[in-house]
Amino acid sequence: MLQEIRERAQGWVAWAIVILISVPFAFWGIDSYLGGGREPFVAKVDGTKISERAFTNNVQRTRMELRERLGAAFDPALFDDARIRAQVLEQMINELVLRDATLGLGLRVSDQAVQAAILAEPFFQEDGVFSRAAYQRVLRLQGLSPAGYEENLRQRLLTTQLPRAVTETEFVTPAELDASIRLLRQRRELSYILLDAASFMPTEAPDEESIQAWYDTHQAAFETPEQVRASYLLLDAATLLGDAAPDEATLRERYQERLPEFSTPEERRIRHILITAPVGSEAEVADAARERLLAAREQILAGADFATLAAELSDDPGSAANGGDLGFVARGLLDPAFAEVAFGLPAGELSEPVRSRFGYHLIEVTEVRGGEVSDFEAVREQLARELTAGQTEAAFFDAAEQLATLAYESPDSLIPAAEALGLTVQTSDWFARDGGEGLFANPRVVAAAFSDDVLEQGNNSELIEPALDGQQALVLRVDDRRPPALQPMEAVRDEIIASLQSEQAAAAALEAAAAMVEQLQAGAPLDEVAGEHAVVVPGLVARNAPGLLPTVLQVGFALPRPESAAADSTYGSAATPEGGAVVVALASVDDADPTGLPAAERAGERSLLSDALGRSHLSEFLAYLRGRAKVEQRAFDGDELP
After folding, report:
1. Mean pLDDT of all residues in the chain?
2. 3-class DSSP state for residue 280?
3. Are residues 48 and 118 in the same domain?
4. Of 97, 270, 461, 522, which residue is least crowded by CB atoms under 10 Å?
């Protein structure tokens, strides 16, 4: 049972997680599924309809999410349109089934729970704290009202109550945990023979009857996908202003405005002797402090060491021990009266006693650094780049706004916008829903081209910004459309022959592997049975051992264990994904010792097992609810789907 859970967690659960991640319900609650009036629907759950529009929107959002999340790793073959549509529809049906079951049990979501969910939503936070301004801004961008969003959120939280009740209340007994550890951390001593498909590849081409039969039974594989060709207007900030450069007067004016930025702040290394006489002290105290510093000044001028006198006389505890040294300081960090003298004093010259709010100071500047100003020519190119970038950005956003407006006002043509903005109407190559080349490989552009408003209604798209830096924008419209079409057999003949030969090779390899297993079970040695094929001996391996073929591990950990240490190995065979086959020999099984596992690892295993059991029980519970519900699925033309 535990093995089955593990395998399922790597199979349907993994796909379900991808779909759950990919279908964004953050801003669309369960009510967005429901169609009203005569709007076409694709499914009905106990009388509640899922509208065609809501279904199509979710499919498009899922496809875009998958492309954007996976990037270059996105493989359309793994996420074909039919599979995505089926998974999205299943998810939407499950949501409705769960909602009805939750309401039937009398469960509700409190206002406090809705408020807590909103406060915890990262989209609505600034510096980690909820921001009402951010909340309103995000909802406005999504075209939602606070009341509408909160009701959708309440419905979404409602549909998660039962799943959480099932998964979060799962528990694992000590016996179950021990059995899981023994099984999942088990090691097995394996050896195997790999039968490569190339060794069994037929040398003769299949006959015409077989080719025709393959073509007839695999026609869906030979259909070209639906494709469109679009015309578009591209607004590119890089070419918007051409070679225009800022004039000299503007550059010099900008230089003067930003002169402080081109100056390194002057810092001075200062040492001082302080005799305290705070503001408000009696005149006698202030005079005595000044007289003491005058006497010290005379001593220094006569050759006494400044640092020695500072250590003896200064009332500044922070610098006295360092000979009065304050280090390098900027003007703004000092008392104004002190700074005025210190930053006007030549290096190496001793000041007269200086009055500050702390008392009297004797100041000496030992070193000066900074204070240089970059001349105009040194920063001219920087100013020109920044000024050009600013002008380009302003021009780009202005032109983008005009483009969006003009494309909307003339939804059946791009020519008015092109003439007004001096742009050229360009034409794309043919591309399908999985994207094309260049701009048309971008998920946003592809989604716009295949949206209902553009593809079915024939309107211009909204403004699209496909570039990551936001310096490009385009509007498109679909000019031509190719429906899915079956390629003629002659066009795919070579592909069919290759497929037939690969199929024959795979069948021959699997048959040879099965024959080898029979010989091994009859007592023949493994090396003798292998013949010209190599025997690989990985030895004692774990369930997820790296570097081993997954098929070898799958067969090896499914074989029954030998009856005793002295008994013969057990054997099995299976086809490999590459079209070959493997013969696997299991010599011994080494169960893990659950008592020797550290407490932290044991706790981790308990959590993993609890999660796996929770998901398994949730799947069974959902299947039970689906069995009780009346679910009708319909095609867009109104016919019932199988």
Report:
1. 85
2. coil
3. yes
4. 522
